[in-house]
Amino acid sequence: MKRFFAIVLLLLLMLPWPAVIQAQGQAEALRVLAALEKKYAGLKDYVVDVKVHFAIETFRAPDLLARLYYKVPDKMRIESNRVVFFPRDGGYFNPAQFKQEEYTVLPLGYVTYNKRRAVQLRLIPKKIKGATQDMVLTIDIGKLLLREMILSQAGGKVIKAEITYGTFSSFELPTVIRLLLDLPAAEPGIAEGFSGLPPDAGEPQRITGEIAISYSNYQVNTGLGDELFKKDKSQGKP
Amino acid sequence: MTLFGFEAYKTFSRWRTYISFGVLALIVVMTEIVMRVSAREIIGSMMKIFQRDFIIAGNILNAWFITTFIMNSLHFHIPFLVTLVAGDMVSSEATAGTIRFLLIRPPSRQRILNAKYLTALFYTAGLVMFFAVLCVVLGLALFGSGDLIMHRLGQFSVVFIPEAEIPLRMLLAFAAAIWSMTVVASLAFLFSAMAENSIGPIIGTMAVVICFLIFGNLPLHFFRHLKPFFFTTHMLLWQGFFDSSIRWLEIGQSAVILGLHNAGLFLIASIVYRRKDIKS
Predict the structure, then answer these.
(1) B162: which chain A residues are within 8 Å (Cβ-Cβ)?
(2) B49 near A CB under 8 A
(3) Which of A90, A148, A212, B174 fits a disulfide with A53 by CB distance 3.0 to 4.6 angstroms?
(4) In angstroms, what CA-CA distances link B28 with B71, B172, B266?
(5) What value of ipTM does the predicted structure carry?
(6) Residue-wise pLDDT tens digits, A172-200
(7) Which structural domain range is residue A141 located in?
């Protein structure tokens, strides 16, 4: 009998525990993402007024006002009588963008975010469509809210989005998204200067700053037609 | 004033004076039509660095953007057109053989030179104003109005100027552009006072302008230190009106430096002209 227990003990010790723990973490991560997706499954479209405030030294613009139209899964349109620069990634709330089948999901662990328990997940797109190569999401587990998103993009760009929510038509939607930017000051090649010589002293190599987007006057699930998003090709993907 | 009237009449009654206006009209019309036809391509290439990160809505390619875009080439083509007349102002009298006739009349050499210089400045101002009106009017007709977006090509740097502020800034910018072009006129005028024919002053002025432009843009530390002393550096003072807040101090300094250039060049031209030997 003793021999039998010894063999069982030995077998248990030989089990790949880290792999089991990792698999459990993976399952938990997928469960949280699925729950988040399910929470917003009823959100088909929304229209909202946005105010974009720039606090970037090299981007001197007054607050820009526009109207944003969104429809699942990824249709978005910005309308304004004036010129508007609206952040393409992280600038608007798209709960349908985290489909499990499109990403390799890696759990990074649990953190405390605003005194609440949150999980951090790393999402690597299986097929890179836009500039984003890697995302780290911080999701409030209790409220099932995406609180923070760190986007790592091609060319060494890093964008951190912090999201504050309000409740509109029974959906928790952003009232403010703060984008903290850390970008190269120039395109590769231009940053190195003409003829390979260094640029003028004092010219920054990287641009850091903040874009704060305020959202107001939500109209949810009004049945926006697809034709609304086809009007202006200039707003298409790069 | 009468002498100025005569000189202006003489200048504007020559058909070649209008070559500059014609060339300028051709440049502006062709540029704006091509930009209208390939608007999307132009926005794509100019805003490339932003289009990856931003959705850009609204009329960016408007009359004001086009005007500032064309103004950026001001220091290349307008100096040449200015020299065509300013470089001919004094030397044409020698070429035509009328200099002796002119200088034995009662008005002093200085008064004659003043009238000629004023005419050169008047022509320069007229040329830049024609350029401004054409750019803006044709631009508004083809592209409409809107906020002005100023950016450095390839750099993550943008300045928004609200539509309401643009007309006044544009007016000030063109006034500054006229002031900067008067230096080219003064330089051509000086060479014209020295020369016996018109080709030399035109080529000489353009050579100086091109050399200073090249030196000012060479990425070598030696020239970077000298750049603030080149008049071509200060010729871009009009750009100071298109920053988020107008850079009055820099504009003022550049205006004074250009003014000193004008005064200095005209003074030398006066000395040369008063000592000019017309007997041999």
Answers:
(1) 62
(2) yes
(3) A212
(4) 10, 20, 31
(5) 0.74
(6) 999 999 999 887 776 655 444 444 444 55
(7) 16-229
